[in-house]
Target: 4-oxalomesaconate tautomerase
Amino acid sequence: MLMRGGTSKGAYFLAEDLPAEPALRDALLLRVMGSPDERQIDGLGGAHPLASKVAVVSPSSDPAADVDYLFLQVAVGKPEVSVRQNCGNILAGVGPFAVERGLVPAGEERTSVRIRMVNTGDLATATFPTPGGRVDYTGGTEISGVPGTAAAVVIEFPAGAGRLLPTGRPRDMIDGIPVTCVDNGMPTVLMTADCVQVTGYETPKDLEEDLKLADRLREIRLKAGHLMGLGDVSDTTVPKLTLLAPPRHGGAVTTRTFIPVRCHTSIGVLGAASVAAGLRVEGGVGAELARLPAEGDPIRLEHPAGFLDIDSSLTTDPDGLPVARRTAVVRTARKIFDGTVFPGPPRRPRSPHIPLEAPDDPAAR
Model:
């Protein structure tokens, strides 16, 4: 099933319909999505990381969950499939997909699906309308980065069991730049945009074309990975990096997020959950510029496509360190296509003497 989840798009599969062996599964998914190819012209992928995603769903053996959700990020231009992170946008479609495939019975008005995110073991509950026992994707909820409206999918995360501040400190220094390392579902590094000589209001395209900035962010991310206990992150997409700037449109803060060097056209759900929690950390780098609402009111994060509202509140553990108390977000999802996908043939190395398109081929024009 091809679905839009939040501001992402991906292919949703039942685990039983894919090879159980990870290497065989990943090789198949590369063919399904059309990778490696910057255009993904021969597959389902949308030529961008936000549209080259896969959800693998199965019944859960965890008594705290109804279904297991494995997220796979399929690289666009490289033959790589990563399991090193979650995706909160694709998560928005997991509950409806589970009902569509008969893994969870639908309620008469609304259905809540308890989901275990296999990549990290974290839990979430998605609640959405199912009038008459069928998923209804229509509704009046609008989210930035998606045209039109759809039914609301409310995603709530339980209080975090892990460390909100992986380094144990609200602020660290990396290459002379103050950062806050936070993990409220997605390892994220917060820093102010002016510390890397940008405003934080640039378009994603402009930021991606700044090669000096890309090199600087790469160095910071590698060092942050070790600080956060993630080890060598050179081949992973976490931690995310989020640049912060004062808000311009009535929100709490302006954000620009990198995944890991491409700038997100909006912001990921789990990344936003970490940013929102990080803004409430006393002494964090966002405390000086964010215009935070009262405790209990949602935090509005401005991003390139608009805004995202996050309910985020903190408490403290017995050692006095901040921990997440409540995190919730409203997303939407939509079923785009349900049917059979025909994987492309296995790739063979192309001869350097054979052009991609013969110049005298009329079809190539």
Observations:
- The helical segments are 22-33, 88-100, 204-208, 211-227, 269-279.
- The chain has two domains: 2-158, 172-320.
